[in-house]
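Input/output pair, single chain:
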Amino acid sequence: MDNPFIKYSKTSDYVIGDLKKLSSSYIPDNFPHREKQINEIAKILNSIINGGIASNILIYGKSGSGKTSSTLYVTSMLSEAVSGNLNSIYINCEIYDSQYSILINIINSINIGETQVPSLGLPLDRVYFELIRRLKKSGKYTIIILDEIDKLIQKNGSDALYVILKVISEVNASIIGITNDSSFVNRLDARVQSRLNQESIIFPPYNAIELRDILNFRVSGIIKREFIDDSAINLCAALGAQEHGDARKSIDLLRIAIENALREGRDLVTADDVYRARDKFEMNILKESIKTLPIHSKMVLLSAALTQETDSDLTVTGEIYENYKNISTELGFQPLTMRRISDLLTDLEDLGLLSTNTRSLGRYGRTKFIRVMGSIENIKSYIMEDPAFINFQGSKIVKQTKLRTNFDSYFDGLNENNNK
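Output:
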């Protein structure tokens, strides 16, 4: 068999630059339609150049609105302005989600020629004082960028951020927190709010016209413009605008469409290429999200999908739990408790695999309605790829008759009132 990489590695006359710059994670040297926000960050951090202390900053905005890339760009420019006399430390709180792991990460990011600290096994107080010692020894101003800062609070409460704020009060340092949660500060306790004492910057969603400008800027100098039809650019921008102005999605869609056309040796990227890229992009994300789920989360998701197939309008936690127990028993697993399944349903909602809507049923109380997001057939097929489900024959799907009687009574009552 011939080496397949030779077939797909042929150069193209349409490529005139580095294709890596089409990655959504690439930090460009220009940010169309983010000049205002970049200048606001720079104004706050400018006091560092004059030997002062910069305020802490909270940056708000939807996913793909340029928060992280703009922040990293500004801090890199600041480092250049102070001749490298800056510790700029980026931490994603989705990955490092405790004050201990964050403190260790900061310690090991400070380049003062000392041995790295092990990630486990040290008391928190020792880690705390070691970090302060190293920050002072470095002699540099330190900016700690906490991306997805709301995830840190969700898991650990306000105390996690309090410890980090206590550290920066001992040295020349500031925090830049990045979040898409507009109510983030309201969930902090008063002592943390007081220590944070932040300035806030909002990154509004991009509209389709702005996304089109960003895409045209990204391909400039990388791909010959005649290789990309305007309809492809416009469609990528429109699809990104539909996703709350997500530039990351627009860029990734265009990149995949371009790469597919190059591999197939075609002369033009069209809207059809973008549609195919979208199908591939969304399918891969969904599949990978399901593939990496723990086994019980997969059983819960399968239960939700099968329950929704039975009655697409009234899928509730109790039914999902009963069907989950049937599935786990059929597969030879010990079912988890109802409380634990509620936690797993919340996790699945956070991943975008489920959506929930709590509604009042009058005297029958409040009930959480659950819907599976995306194609149920695709979700079932991805779950069935797990060898643990190889013997699954299709557990009996139950209905909670009492609950449904209550639903019917309630909705019948609503209809009667509306008809009067």
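Residues 405-415 have pLDDT under 50 and may be disordered. Strands lie at 56-61, 86-92, 141-147, 173-179, 198-203, 354-360, 366-372.
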